[in-house]
Design brief:
By secondary structure, the protein is an alpha+beta fold. The protein has two helices and four strands; from the N terminus they run ααββββ. Strands 1-2-4-3 form a four-stranded antiparallel beta sheet. The termini are far apart.
């Protein structure tokens, strides 16, 4: 009986994930690809680039979950609002480089005696 409940719970979660509306925020690589986007590695960060649906396709629920993009952008908009760039995993912080400065030793300056 426990295995049946576990299987039913897993099936329900799977159906719920696929039935998620397109206006849900993209927060993983799977979400990005599900909405028709692509995942890239940019300077150590993992980013999603997904199309933002045109206005005429945002209200019709028939387009939800069809890999046609998202209704709104929870990241940076690109190409005059056509695409959305969402940082899924930020790049690791770059270590600070300490510069060692050696002291400058002043040399004895003697004036020209020909004056």
């Amino acid at each position: 009986m426990g295995k049946l409940r576990l299987a039913a719970t897993a099936a329900a979660l799977t159906v719920a994930a696929f039935a998620a509306p397109a206006f849900a925020q993209v927060s993983s690589a799977a979400d990005c690809e599900y909405e028709g986007g692509e995942v890239f590695n940019v300077q150590g960060a993992t980013v999603c680039l997904v199309q933002i649906r045109p206005e005429e396709y945002r209200e019709n629920e028939a387009y939800d979950g069809q890999q046609l993009g998202v209704n709104s952008c929870n990241g940076d908009t690109l190409a005059n609002g056509t695409f959305c760039k969402i940082t899924l995993v930020p790049a690791p912080a770059k270590p600070e480089v300490e510069e060692t400065v050696e002291p400058v030793v002043a040399e004895d300056v003697t004036e020209d005696e020909s004056n």
